[in-house]
Write a structure and sequence with these properties.
Strand content: under 5%
Low-confidence stretches: 1-7, 10-14
Number of domains: 2
Strand order of the largest sheet: 1-2
Mean pLDDT: 79
Helix content: over 70%
Distance between the termini: 54 Å
Number of strands: 2
Length: 152
Amino acid sequence: MGFMENIGEKDGHQLAAETWREAFLRSFRACGIIKRAAEDAGVTRRAVYYAHKREPEFRALYDEAREESIEVLEDVARGRAKESSDNLLIFLLKAARPDVYREVVRNENINVNMNANLERLDKQLTDSQIDELLEIVETKRLALEGRVEEVR
């Protein structure tokens, strides 16, 4: 299917492929929703997906329109974050600088949970089972450090 082939129908008239593509991209750039943009252009989502899959030129224009629609959302989100939404502000900061604003897991919580689990296991396992588990843990630790190949 070529770039200028007819696909879709609006108000009972066949649409030239170039015409629906332009209408779709214009709408998609503004709303970022494939279904709505396809309806605005008078074509099905299937026609859009087909063109995206088969036509590199359309795919490039689609990707550009998608990025522009995301930038519009980001602009709106930034405005709202500055005005009133701490949650939105935090989300935007995490997205923009994950190395600075990412969630940090505290080892203290992990250690507390691990100690509770170990105490429970200590009551349920025999001494030989505990020795076997300790050997497995030690082998894995050494393997992670690159000092021993894992046996299991």
